Amino acid sequence: MSVIECNGLSKNYGKKKALDEVSFVIKENTITGLIGRNGAGKTTLLKLIAGFIHQTEGDIKVFSKNPFNSLAVSANRIYIDDQMNFPNTLTLQDILQSAASFYVNWDQLLAEKLFDYFSFHPSLRYQQLSKGMKSTFNMIIGLSARCPLTIFDEPTTGMDASVRKDFYRALLKDYLAYPRTIILSSHLLNEIEDLLEDVLLLKDGEKCLHLSIEELKEYGVYLQGSDKCVRELAGDKEILYEKSLGQDHLQLGIKNDLTNREIQQASSMGVHISPISADDVCTYLTNKTIGGIDDVFNRS
Ligand SMILES: Nc1ncnc2c1ncn2[C@@H]1O[C@H](COP(=O)(O)OP(=O)(O)OP(=O)(O)O)[C@@H](O)[C@H]1O
């Protein structure tokens, strides 16, 4: 069953097209990574899914309903980001208690265990927490709420590496025990790829790809060898990346549609083939140039 269906979804802010005719379906009980560069449209898409803003054009359905101002949708989703705020009159303990009465699937034991594990003091106020501690506290709410649709927009802002690891592990463990539909936006695909089932990649407001993580890991390959042989083998295939490795030596990243014959040819030509990581595929597909930052310093 699908939980989210978008069809030709667009969102403009004045003249700025933040999302441009995006279409995709997210199935129930999956973890999807929403990946894209700064300004790609991730937060805009997540806010549309949460029902906080209205689309300019196109269609969006969440649990088969238009999410904008929908009580049914808001009762079944939680949206966690670094803009969350809570009244200063409430202690952290009070906040957890009111969350418990708001979310029907709330797991108080999990909330308390995570609260202790991360050494929060119950009488502290949210505003007294550091940036990373706020994100950690938000994560406790996001996980303990066990909402059928859980949206994390850049949840690890400010968390140190070890808290981020703990968060990913807690997310995976809780998801396996209580499957639900989770969307996680991030710039750090390499950190979260082991968690993900699917990746939705945005570029400049458009959908770049929506694939399973396994498909993404096989999306591209590097060809490395003499300039002439690498170029001959690449032919007119889509080039994702290009790097000169000294005189007459080249590394090309291409879309992986090599035939068996071409793989044999590569071996006889001395061209080495190796996989491109999912993270690098996303970086190359969303780079402005195929040489990346090196192109800025390339004077030729
Ligand atoms: N309220 C707004 N008014 C005008 N433009 C906006 C508004 N919100 C976002 N934008 C623009 O829409 C585009 C998409 O922004 P969005 O915040 O969705 O991107 P993002 O992928 O979440 O970026 P980041 O990774 O930097 O958080 C950007 O060009 C941004 O400047």
TrEMBL record:
SUPFAM superfamilies: P-loop containing nucleoside triphosphate hydrolases. Residues 4-229 form the ABC transporter domain. The keyword Nucleotide-binding applies. It comes from Metabacillus halosaccharovorans. Signal peptide: none annotated. It comes from the Bacteria. GO terms for molecular function: ATP binding. This is ABC transporter ATP-binding protein. It holds the Pfam family ABC_tran. Keywords: ATP-binding, Nucleotide-binding, Transport. SMART domains: AAA.
